Amino acid sequence: MSSARKERNGLVDWIKAIGIALIIAIIIKKFLIEQYVVYGESMMPTIQNGNRLIVNKIGYEIGNPERFDLIVFKANPKEDYIKRVIGLPGDHIAYKDDKLYINKKPVDEPYLKEFKRFAGNRTLTGNFTLEEITGHDTVPKGKIFVLGDNRLHSIDSRHIGFVEMTDIVGEANIRYWPVDEMKVFNGFKKE
């Protein structure tokens, strides 16, 4: 075999390899994971403006969101929001004296401890019941109730209503930027 033919075969092999790698990357981006840059302060201090996240897009194709997951969802045709799942279908949600009650039982929110320290004596969430702000006694089937961790500066289910399960893009699993603040998010249990 001539050296020109070997070079051509080597070039064809490289083009094939690059083509296959691109196809795999497109499939991964389309169906499995997505990269997001966070704009705004609604999830502070958990997630800061400018943080970069990896969002698992396939997890909710297999299962359902769990309470306290960090999710990205289609808020409108132009914007995706990141918020924390607070209420699941069938849940009754209320806040009284800055304390979360789910189905009339108090629930701890450890992810708010740092923010409460900064807020001092200010109330973060405010008193409300689900019925007062949505007209529903419980979270309807096929929907969830979400809040930002920065309750004083978050547009969330208190303002936009319930989030349709079909509008969920995926779960924020990893903050990879800035590198020194890299973190794997695993809901309420491990934060």
Automatic annotation (TrEMBL):
Keyword flag Membrane: yes
TM segment ranges: 14-33
GO molecular function terms attached to this record: signal peptidase activity
UniProt key word Signal: no
Catalytic activity annotation: Cleavage of hydrophobic, N-terminal signal or leader sequences from secreted and periplasmic proteins
UniProt entry keywords in alphabetical sequence: Hydrolase, Membrane, Protease, Transmembrane, Transmembrane helix
Protein name: Signal peptidase I
Lineage, opening ranks: Bacteria, Bacillati, Bacillota, Bacilli, Bacillales
Bilayer topology term: Single-pass type II membrane protein
InterPro entries: LexA/Signal_pep-like_sf (IPR036286), Pept_S26A_signal_pept_1 (IPR000223), Pept_S26A_signal_pept_1_CS (IPR019758), Pept_S26A_signal_pept_1_Lys-AS (IPR019757), Peptidase_S26 (IPR019533)
Top-rank taxon, per record: Bacteria
Record-stated family: Belongs to the peptidase S26 family.
Organism: Fictibacillus barbaricus
Main subcellular location of this protein, as a coarse class: membrane
Localization annotation: Cell membrane; Membrane
PANTHER family given in the database record: CHLOROPLAST PROCESSING PEPTIDASE, SIGNAL PEPTIDASE I
Documented EC number(s): 3.4.21.89
Domain Peptidase S26 intervals: 12-177
